[in-house]
Automatic annotation (TrEMBL):
The active site is at T174 (nucleophile). Keywords: Autocatalytic cleavage, Hydrolase, Protease. The record marks G173, T174 as: Cleavage. This is Isoaspartyl peptidase. Pfam families: Asparaginase_2. GO terms for molecular function: hydrolase activity, acting on carbon-nitrogen (but not peptide) bonds, in linear amides; peptidase activity. InterPro entries: Ntn_hydrolases_N (IPR029055), Peptidase_T2 (IPR000246). Substrate binds at R202, I203, G204, D205, T225, G226, Y227, G228. GO terms for biological process: proteolysis. PANTHER family: L-ASPARAGINASE (PTHR10188), N(4)-(BETA-N-ACETYLGLUCOSAMINYL)-L-ASPARAGINASE (PTHR10188:SF6).
Length: 307
């Protein structure tokens, strides 16, 4: 049987062991394991890479630990506004959404758009109406309103600040997944609640194909996590693919060039998960840590937090 691989992330940033209780650390590991197991189950049954990344990201969206889906941060108006994107490497089809509310799993809405040749990127009320027409599961405001996120928002609003994710532990709370299925197809998916106290309908790189998410069977699948404005300016996900396609760089060298050199020079913090068509994977980040994990047909399931 041809091999499959699945890698995920739950955000990068200033994630230090000294600031983490053993209970919280184990909770993150368990949430990452659950997401990996959900995606692995799909791939084990000869499912597609698209289905695997969507399922893995959905699992993280269902956890209040991550800034996506249920755990999404509050905007300046006290609402949970989410964005997500997904792409498959065979035909370069993609689906993306931004500025949506009350969608239980934003990545599933993005996946629905991927299979619709009429659209790639939908926003706001229109995207929500599209989801309603396809009977996608919704959730009331209360589902997303966790006390932890509310306290972050009130603190940020009180100081008049826009925050990356939470308190002293600066964290870019995006979630994402990349997969290679047994048919040799790649896929990538990314989802986030954005920045705490964000204004003016701000969106980041997570829903932008080429910046936060990219997949191409000829090169790689990428899902990013970081300060979105820098990842948008640097077109990070596509840049890794370009270095592989046009300069012949390996996956690892391309990631190194973009994350550790280009982004660092721009003072852009964060990272990405990457996977190529041969099943090679890379976790590349210039921050102190990144919630991440990997599993495959010949890879034991492993999860990591720190550098």
């Amino acid at each position: 049987m041809k091999k499959f691989v699945l890698a995920i992330h739950g955000g990068a940033g200033t994630i230090l062991k000294k600031n983490m209780t053993p209970e919280k650390e184990e909770a993150y590991h368990e949430a990452l394991r659950e997401a990996l197991e959900a995606g692995e189950d799909i791939l084990n049954k000869k499912g597609t890479a698209i289905e695997a990344v969507a399922v893995a990201v959905s699992a993280m969206e269902d956890s209040p630990l991550f800034n996506a889906g249920k755990g999404s941060v509050y905007s300046n108006s006290g609402k949970n506004e989410m964005e997500a994107s997904i792409m498959e490497g065979a035909k370069l089809r993609a689906g993306a959404i931004a500025g949506v509310r009350n969608i239980k799993n934003p990545i599933q809405l993005a996946k629905s758009i991927l299979f619709d040749d009429d659209f790639v990127y939908l926003i706001g009320k229109g995207a929500e109406e599209y989801g309603d027409n396809r009977k996608l599961e919704k959730a009331a405001d209360e589902y997303f309103q966790t006390r932890f996120r509310e306290e972050q928002w009130l603190a940020a609003k009180g100081e008049g600040k826009v925050l990356l994710d939470h308190d002293a532990d600066k964290k870019f709370g995006t979630v994402g997944a990349v997969a290679l299925d047994i048919d040799g197809n790649l896929a990538a998916a990314t989802s986030t609640g954005g920045l705490t106290n964000k204004k003016y309908g701000r969106i980041g790189d997570s829903s932008v194909i080429g910046s936060g998410t990219y997949a191409n069977n000829n090169t790689c699948a990428i899902s990013c996590t970081g300060y979105g404005e820098f990842f948008l300016r640097a077109i990070v996900a596509y840049d890794v693919s370009c270095l592989m396609e046009y300069k012949g760089l390996s996956l690892k060298d391309a990631c190194e060039q973009v994350v550790m050199k280009k982004l660092v020079a721009m003072k852009g913090e964060g990272g990405l998960i990457a996977l190529d068509a041969a099943g090679n994977y890379d976790f590349s980040f210039n921050s102190e840590g990144m919630y991440r994990g990997v599993v495959g047909s010949d890879l034991a399931l492993k999860t990591y937090i720190y550098k």
